[in-house]
């Protein structure tokens, strides 16, 4: 059992919420870091970048993520049942790389049909050696995890440095880039991604005070947004503002919500989400009739409205525009309640003509507590049906999907999301039916469907699931010592 002193403090959690990162120092012998770096150096120069196979190729890396420091930080942010995602990568920054400035500012490609401000995902950047600014560490822009648009010169650039073993825990959506390596040494950074398997019910860090205290020196830019994340991580719903506000203030908030400036619009959205009926009506109105951009921001604000928003969201699920239906379903997943007709409505949406809507319904069912056997059975059927529609023709992948056209790394988006939801809630249904669907998914054309299916079977741990996994691993086992230069 993890000792509480390895969990994050309230102050560290608030830094993660406001700034989007934490620097972790792993107390591990220098020899291990040196050994890992030597192994990676050999692989990169003799075999090329192994991509997702970096962990089985250099198994010693797992020791870093098994330390109490790292497990404590990830458990604090993502819950104790977090999962290491199968996408991993070794970023090799060569001396004097030719890219001006070292790279382009970006967010990593996301795995859902919509990004979440709440930390369902996180990443860790690990450096195998002492990392100084001249070696080109990954630059981050603190506090930008909530923005779709790049802040440019208005943002702060930070270059985290430290001794070998330095790890930077970041919100999945934080803007970052490789900086220029002006040294004469190779720089290796390993990027690993992690995801939350269940919504928080209680604080999973060293929680002492229910009051949200913004770190000293942090401009109070997004108090309502930060409060929403803080309360959600504590398993609590944010307190609503008492009474009603004036028509003048409501009009002002509407205008701010419709503003092009993202900071202004998000502030208005989250403030409206805390205003009870008045705020819900305004935000719902924007999802129904607002511009596409305003509707998305309104959806974020509605998360904090909680179960009071459910009746209106269920009505929006009947909207003629697929985007509006999809947004309503996204919010229901984030609210996480199975109250009333939520689950039955989401199951019905699995038959929607829009893949966007269907995919959001699949994911929301995996995020909601107490969905029941019917939902799990429906997800198992969705997974099986998605496998029947798979193609090996790359030109057909995502051809008709306009909401996630950049997600070419997921070739079966419905199946991928269904396997993830079964990983989250598969135990609460008819397990044998779930096992059968996951067994078929082990042979999907999509590598991430296969990975999720294997992990879900591992979580189920029935006799049949274990037997299926043993047979699967016998044929798929990776030998980390085999390379193009080995002979046996």
In CATH terms, what is the architecture of the largest domain? Answer: Sandwich
CATH superfamily of the largest domain: q2cbj1_9rhob like domain
Which structural class fits the helix and strand makeup?
alpha+beta
Strand content: 5-15%
What's the domain count? 3
> What is the 3D form?
globular
Kindly state the percentage of residues in helix.
40-55%
Average residue pLDDT: 92
Query: Biggest β-sheet, characterized?
Result: 5 strands, antiparallel
**Tally of strands:** 7
Summarize the helix and strand pattern as letters. HEHHHHEEEEEEHHHHHHHHHHHHHH
> Any low-confidence stretches, pLDDT <50, length ≥5?
none
What assembly state would you assign to the polypeptide chains in this entry? single chain
Description:
With 488 residues, the protein is α+β, with helices and mostly antiparallel strands. It has 3 domains: 192 residues, q2cbj1_9rhob like domain (Jelly Rolls); 104 residues, Leucine-rich Repeat Variant; 96 residues. Helix content is 44%, strand content 9%. Strands 1-5-3-7-2 form a 5-stranded antiparallel beta sheet. A two-stranded antiparallel ribbon has the order 4-6. Helix 11 packs antiparallel against helix 12 and helix 13 packs antiparallel against helix 14. The longest helix has 17 residues. The protein is globular. The mean pLDDT is 92.
């Amino acid at each position: 059992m993890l000792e509480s002193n390895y969990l994050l403090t309230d102050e560290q959690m608030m830094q993660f919420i406001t700034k989007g990162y934490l620097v972790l120092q792993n107390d591990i012998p220098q020899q291990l870091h040196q050994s890992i770096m030597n192994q990676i150096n050999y692989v990169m120069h003799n075999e090329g970048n192994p991509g997702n196979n970096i962990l089985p190729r250099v198994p010693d890396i797992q020791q870093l993520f098994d330390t109490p420091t790292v497990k404590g930080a990830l458990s604090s942010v993502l819950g104790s049942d977090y999962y290491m995602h199968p996408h991993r990568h070794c970023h090799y920054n060569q001396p004097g790389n030719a890219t001006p400035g070292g790279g382009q500012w970006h967010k990593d490609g996301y795995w859902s049909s919509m990004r979440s401000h709440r930390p369902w995902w996180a990443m860790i950047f690990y450096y195998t050696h002492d990392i100084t600014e001249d070696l080109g560490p990954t630059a981050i822009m603190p506090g930008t995890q909530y923005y779709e648009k790049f802040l440019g010169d208005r943002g702060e650039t930070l270059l985290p440095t430290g001794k070998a073993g330095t790890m930077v825990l970041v919100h999945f959506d934080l803007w970052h880039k490789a900086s220029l390596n002006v040294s004469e040494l190779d720089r290796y950074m390993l990027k690993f991604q992690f995801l939350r398997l269940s919504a928080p019910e209680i604080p999973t860090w060293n929680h002492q005070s229910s009051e949200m205290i913004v770190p000293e020196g942090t401009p109070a830019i997004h108090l309502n947004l930060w409060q929403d994340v803080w309360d959600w991580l504590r398993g609590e719903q944010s307190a609503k503002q008492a009474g009603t506000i004036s028509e003048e203030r409501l009009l002002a908030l509407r205008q701010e919500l419709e503003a092009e400036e993202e900071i202004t619009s998000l502030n208005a959205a989250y403030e409206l989400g805390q205003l009870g009926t008045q705020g819900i009506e305004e935000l719902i109105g924007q999802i129904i009739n607002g511009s596409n951009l305003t509707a998305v921001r309104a959806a974020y604000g509605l998360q904090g409205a909680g179960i009071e928003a459910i009746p209106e969201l269920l009505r929006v699920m009947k909207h003629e525009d697929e985007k509006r239906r999809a947004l309503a379903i996204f919010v229901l997943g984030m609210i996480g309640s199975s109250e009333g007709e939520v689950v039955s409505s989401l199951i019905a949406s699995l038959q929607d003509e829009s893949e966007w809507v269907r995919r959001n319904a699949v994911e929301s069912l995996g995020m909601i507590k107490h969905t029941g056997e019917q939902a799990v059975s429906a997800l198992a059927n969705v997974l099986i049906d998605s496998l029947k529609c798979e193609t090996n023709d790359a030109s057909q992948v995502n051809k008709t999907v306009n909401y996630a056209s950049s997600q070419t790394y997921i070739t079966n988006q419905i199946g991928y999301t269904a396997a993830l939801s079964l990983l989250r809630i598969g135990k609460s249904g008819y397990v044998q039916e779930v096992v059968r669907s996951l067994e078929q998914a082990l042979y999907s054309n999509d590598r991430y469907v296969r990975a999720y299916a294997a992990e879900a079977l591992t979580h189920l741990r029935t006799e049949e699931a274990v037997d299926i996994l043993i047979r699967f691993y016998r044929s798929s086992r990776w030998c980390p010592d085999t390379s193009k230069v080995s002979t046996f």
